[in-house]
Amino acid sequence: MQIIRTIVAIVLIVALLLFSFANWKPVEVNIWQGLVLETKIPALVLASFLLGLVPMWLLHRGTRWHLNRRIASLENAARTAAAALAPVAPVAPVDEPVATPHPPVSEPETPISESPLRP
């Protein structure tokens, strides 16, 4: 994925350089009635691009920072809650054998002599 990003960046830079060499002409930009800016076309295009890109990039970085902090906070809260709810299993002493409980044996309801399976 990094190679694709690098190739796209190189293609865009080459296109910008070709545009700059082909359009290196001075232009006048009327900002207000008495304020005129004389600049080259590539500088005007680059300034316009950055004027639109920088605020959106700053907004993206701020939102990403905020969401990363929120995710970290929620992960810490989940870890704390999981640690508080996890029961601690008692450990049997080494000297004593561990007894396994057996289910109680129930008495049959009908005597064996009266069982329907026996004649």
Give a brief rundown of this model.
With 119 residues, the chain is mainly alpha-helical.
Protein described:
There is one protein chain. By secondary structure, the protein is mostly helical. The protein has 2 helices and 2 strands; from the N terminus they run H-E-E-H. It has one domain. A two-stranded antiparallel sheet has the order 1-2. Strand 1 (26-30) and strand 2 (36-40) form a beta hairpin. The termini are far apart.
Radius of gyration of CA atoms, rounded to a whole number: 39 Å
Strand order of the largest sheet: 1-2
Q: How many strands?
A: 2
How many domains make up the 3D coordinates?
A: 1
The mean pLDDT is 85
Poorly predicted runs: none
Biggest sheet details: 2 strands, antiparallel
Helix content: 55-70%
Termini Cα gap: 82 Å
N-to-C SSE string, H for helix and E for strand: HEEH
Q: Give me the number of helical elements.
A: 2
Give the overall silhouette. rod-shaped
The amount of beta strand, in percent, is: 5-15%
Alpha-beta content class: mainly alpha
Please outline the helices and strands.
Blueprint: H1 2-22, E1 26-30, E2 36-40, H2 41-85
Antiparallel strand pairs: 1-2
Keywords:
119 residues, mainly alpha, two-stranded antiparallel ribbon, 55% helix, 8% strand, rod-shaped, membrane, transmembrane, transmembrane helix, Lipopolysaccharide assembly protein A domain-containing protein
